[in-house]
Amino acid sequence: MDLILSSLDILARWDVILALLVGSVGGVLIGAIPGVGPAVAIAILLPATFSMDPIVGLTVLLGIYGSSMYGGAIPAILINTPGTAVNALTTYDGYPMTARGEGRRALSLAYSASFFGGIFSVICLILFAPVLAKVAPLFGSREIFLAALLGIILVVIAHRGQTLIAAALACFGIFLNTIGLEAVKYTRRYTFEQSWLASGIDLIVVVLGLFALSQAFLLLQGEDEKVRTTRLRGGLFQGFRELGKHPRVASVSAGFGVLMGMIPGVGEFTAQFLSYTYAQKTSKRPEDFGHGSSEGLIASETANNAVPAAAMVPLLALGIPGEALTAMMLSVFYVHNVVPGPGLFQNQMDFVVALYLALLILNVLVLVFLLVGTRPLIQVVKIPNRFLGACILTLSFVGVYSLRNSVTDCMLAAAFGVFGFVLKRLSLPIVPIILGMVLGGIMEVKLRASMSRVKTPLDFIERPVAMILFLIILTILAVHARRVWLDYKERRERRWSTRHASTRFEAQLYRRRSFLSAERGKKVRERRNPYSPRSTDGS
Amino acid sequence: MSEDPATKVIGRLRGQFLFAAIFLGGAALLLSQLGNQTTWANKTDLVAQPGFWPAVGVGGMVLFGGLHLLRLPRRRLARDDWQEGCTWLSVVEFAAWFLVYVVVVPLLGYLPTTLVFMPVLLWRLGYRSRGVLAAGVIFGGAIVVVFKTFLNVRIPGGAVYEFLPDAMRNIFIVNF
Does any domain span residue A466? Predict the structure, then answer.
């Protein structure tokens, strides 16, 4: 109880309350505009939060992270376009409900399910915090190295079908982090005798380029879309009553969200996939899924909103971000010399609980805001894409230029923006680059620190936690290798079974010619064959 | 012929080979510079060598980038790859707009540059309606007020502010 009170004391400041309001309302707005997303907003706001207290800055960023998914459900349900990437599954059941005139019911269900997911995960983690505080000190340098390695491996293999390029991009991130003056031997690495490269490439510059500027370029290069919204009828509270009829689906989905959020590199998509599959398999009406099932909507929205609080666990307890948004938040800690990790849980537990309480309050604020302001909020989806692109371009300037007032940083960010644009055009992942940069730096420091106390390679995994992490890594790699082999076999079999002729015009002409000459040859052979009976039709 | 589902998840096929080839070429070039661009420290473990992590990075880029290239369903450049490459180059124009904005802000000041930049860019994008152009100006002004006036982000005052009268000069340098 004392812990909760001291945490509330940290939050009882006007700037924190303002940050909560800005974060919640801003997050919902950003989430509701398709094409912006929390990553772009957090990247832009990141340098502005450096001048704030850690609790204020982190509350704004957490607010945007936690509330954007609420907002993202609005266009997903009303116009079949997810506001944020994680709301894609919401369109499966949300939009069919709108199509049959139940848009308000779908929105209400999405809000209540999101609220339940958010509150469930925060309460779980507040209760779980004392256990984490006991486990976190068991992580020394080698355990943190192995956990970071596990995080990179999970991020890479989470991109099924793109594992190789995801691994290559993660390695690119690791490489980017090494550029500049090395901190131990003071030697230059890949600076090509350029003084501006000696201080290295700033993470924020890369993040702003890859997320914000690339998105601006994508929107500026594209076309405006005509959006038609639906008139909403009915109350917004009916969703709570309906959610109460499906407590099992809601709690299991929230549980999946909490578990998947805590594992680095896994996140919302896996949590949603597991929850949705579970809900469909255990439903009495599985055929409704994808056609406006309330259970499907509850499963997807509960799972994705349970993730943000859980995603803070590896960041706060071990200093290891599990995905791009928490990787950006890590820089807020570093700027203020607050080192997240086992020490934070031991010495500043009230700070950790204060962050969770902020998330709890935020969920309430967002719900109230949505219940009151949904009708005017719907209008934001009508903002033209290219206008948005121009806005993001102008906002990105604040993010990059305010870092060091450096034109070079802006040029680098623009270059990364073009690179990010190319990756987005090719549907290739950006997150491995960011995690490669952040986790690569952690791995370098921790491996060097741990090797000074290791004589043989086996000493590295002599401690129980290190051994467990090592075994988990081996198991994951073995499971992935098996899956790759099965995919390969399946692909080969499919190729054998579906191989048929090319559809190219030249190939079709060639086949026609072959057919005609074969037919003609058959007739000629038939005519010349003395043993075949002659035709009697006179031709 | 229907596309093989296993290759569908790789991403868009158009431009994929061009990207993979450029990525692999760049990575190989960086790997070839490993000896020149890093230093070998005597009496130091391999993992503590300054070049160890750059080697992991560029080595991984070459290895996985090469394997990705080999796994692509189409391993030759087609016409649509070049068309996709032209689309990539087309956004360099917007990168140039951004850099011009960056260069002009310290000269003309954050507020005047933004108030001019937004409508001009919107005009270039094809918007002609007064409403949209005015919305651009209002949005630009709002950005400056929120970030520079209220959040005090570090953006220097414009060089032209030096020509303003004393009282106004300070206000403009600090707030706009």
Answer: no
